[in-house]
Structure formats: structure tokens, C-alpha cells
């Protein structure tokens, strides 16, 4: 079959790879219909996450049709249309039972790597390096879905393929940031990053009762899109002081909840950007936490900061003093998608939540390399490239 | 060496150094004596009555202890090597036993890429042993 493979830094190509097989009783094989790029893939492309092998199939946000199920699969059968959570979950360990699905104890086949790096191993994820299990990704004609009963979710008839696609990761991740960030009725919420995850976090905050939602980015086309689709307020940090704008918008208090949806390769306009670039080039820090610093600094006293962006290691100039002295709550997580996807699909069906505007560039898999190039360089007002198979 | 190679090498060195540092800090006697433990989200009776083969086959070479976990988190399944069996073998057996008891089977890794390249081959050697490494 054809698949989009990582072949080296900034080198992805469509290759012929062997068809996936059922390897466990609880596996199923999915014919992929739609698979989208994600901002976190860029960390693989740039070599920021180094546990990749040439020939690894990438992609983790997808939906499709079931073509084969193992004898242990009871909730799906061939012909079913499903969305697949990017994180694989066994559904029965303590973490899964407590709806912390991305922390599943039984799905990372290489636990030693992340246990040494982070003290414990999170669950496995499709197409996201051998540190996260080495599972083949979704930019392919077919993909094996382990623990299919707990990893795949049926799509209601009223939801079209494209809308369902984004519940696989970006909508679920965004919702989790607002939910676990503790957004309440009447809150002011600031979201850093107007990509798909940031937009979904902003919409989730609205639906959870926030009175004002401010979305921060440097790309006007993304901010305009979020304004027009969701009616959020926007701040372009290349033109406006974020701190001043947030103080003005909140009566001098700062946002109640700050959600970071940028990740470890953040950009900025100030000298701290140069500082972080130098530090990371010299390997004195692994990640650039610019948006996290801003979120902590600007959050109101006693407020909450949620880190959604992907980080890999250690950072410098972490504002621990602000965190402690302002009495902040800081949390973060990879997405617990199984907890949110059914609800998100229902909200799409009822018209509460729009997602398909994120698919700005739809193309065949054969144009996968171009799709990543557009996405990475933010060319042609790209928000997400989506591969149709 | 290209940039990718350097990145792989740096990551490998960091991980190996972290393991070596941890091992240097841990006295050998303490390492050999301590229990390796997983918490299984099943009752102690369930664990006792259906100990999976992966662990049961070592029974004459390891000590096994089963006790309730705190906070209603299931059962602590503890093992200590007493014979020739290595810590890595016991760690792997504990992980497999936990997976079978909780999820019914041990998830199998996907097939490796056909052309991993030199650095990918190094990574394949690391991951082939990753199931028995790490922290328990």
C-alpha cells in the first residue's frame, strides 16, 4: 500500500510499505478516508523528537471505514465508519478507568525510553516516534488500530467525514484544555495559538460558559478565521502588546484561565525569542516555552494555566516565582480523547461545534510532501492540510 | 554526520547517560534486593488466582508478593529475582502479566520499517530491549 513516510529531517515521501496485519485479537484494520497534518508532526519533521526511523509512517489524526476486525473486537464490524483517537487506550487500566486515556499503562511498547526521560511512560500514539510506541501512522491507505473497542469511536450518520476527522485529536485536545483548565461561567479565557487546537480550545471555552475569549497568534488569516467562525476576540502579538491587551480586556485582573496551544517550537517578537533560539541550538534547553511563560505571567492571581502544546524535555527561565506567588494552578496533558470524542460528535451533529473550516487544503496522499510544506511555512493561508485516500 | 544523525546521537547519549547516572547512584546491593512492582487494576484475589504464564514460569526463580494497592488502585504485584533470572526479564514479565490481567493481551509492536538507515538500526536495537528496561 501507499503511505507517507518520514525519511529524514524535513524529508517526507510517499512510499510502498507492507499492508498492516491483525497482530492482536483486539486489533482492527481501518481503510483510512481522511488523515490530517498536525502541528505536533512538525516536531518530528524538524528532528526535534529524535526517536524516528527512516520509513516510519507518520500521521495520527484520522477517520475511515473498518475493513477487518480481530476476534476480540465487539463494538465494531466491517463497514462501520469510525473516528480513531490519536492515543491508543486499553480501556481497563487504572488510568483508562479514570478517563486519563493518554496515560494508558498498556499501550506503549517501548516504555523504557519515556520512563527514563520523564519518569513514567504515557500511552502509545499512532505515527509519533518509537518513544511513543512506534506504531504506524495514519497517512496511509490502511492502518492497524490496536484495542479497537476503546480507541475507535463510531461516527453518527448526521456527521460528515471532514467534521468528524478533527475530533480525532485537535477538537478533543482543545476541549480538554478548557475542561481541565477549569473554565467556568463568566470567565475570561486567553488562548495562545490560533491553529486547529487553539481554535477548538477557544470554542470549547465559549461552550463551557466563558464570557470573553481572546485568541492570540501572529497570523492574521488564522485570527480572522476564528473571528468569523466563532466570534472570538483576537490579539496579533506581532502588532500588539499581549500583556497590555489582556489587562485592558480584563479590568486589570488578567484572564481567569490561560490555555497554551503552541508547543515547544514557539515563536515570538522580542529578545527572549533570540535567547531561546540560542539556548536550544546549544542544547542548553530542549524546548522554547515562550507561550507558557506569557500565559503564567499574564494569568490573574489564583487563575489556571493549561499546557496543551507538545513539550519534550527541559526549558529555561520557567517563571516559578510567578506561579508560586500568584497562587496559580498549572496543568498539562496529552489528549484524553476517548473521554470527549462522543460528546464532540454529538455537538457537531447538533450544530454547536464547527470543525470542517479547518481543512483549508484537501489533497490526495500523493501530494503529502506539498501538504506538509504548505502547513509548515503557513503558505496560502493554510490551517490544515488534509489527505483524502 | 548529518543533522538527523547528530540529533539521534545526542538523544541516545542523553538517555544512556541518564541510565548510567541512575545506576551509579544506586548501590548494587540495594538494586539486587529491592522489589520490582507493578500495580494491576484488578482485585488481589483475581491476581492470585490467574497469574499469567509470563510471570508464573519464573516462579521457582523469583519471590512474588501480592498485596492491595492504596487508594483502591487495585493490587500491587511485586517480584524479586532470587535465582539466575535478570532484573530485565522480571521487569518484562511483570509488564506482560499486568497487561494480560488488565487488558487481556499484550499489545504487539507494529512491524519495523524496511529501510531504517544506520541510526534507525541503532534505535531498533534500543527498542528491542525497551520492554525490559525503564523504571519499575
From TrEMBL, chain A:
Residues 25-155 form the Alcohol dehydrogenase-like N-terminal domain. InterPro entries: ADH-like_C, ADH-like_N, ADH_Zn_CS, GroES-like_sf, NAD(P)-bd_dom_sf. The keyword rRNA processing does not apply. It comes from the Bacteria. Keywords: Metal-binding, Oxidoreductase, Zinc. Its cofactor is Zn(2+). Residues 196-264 form the Alcohol dehydrogenase-like C-terminal domain. Belongs to the zinc-containing alcohol dehydrogenase family. This is Glutathione-dependent formaldehyde dehydrogenase. It comes from Lentzea alba.
TrEMBL record, chain B:
It comes from the Bacteria. Residues 106-136 are annotated as: Disordered. This is Uncharacterized protein. The lineage of its organism: Bacteria, Bacillati, Actinomycetota, Actinomycetes, Pseudonocardiales.
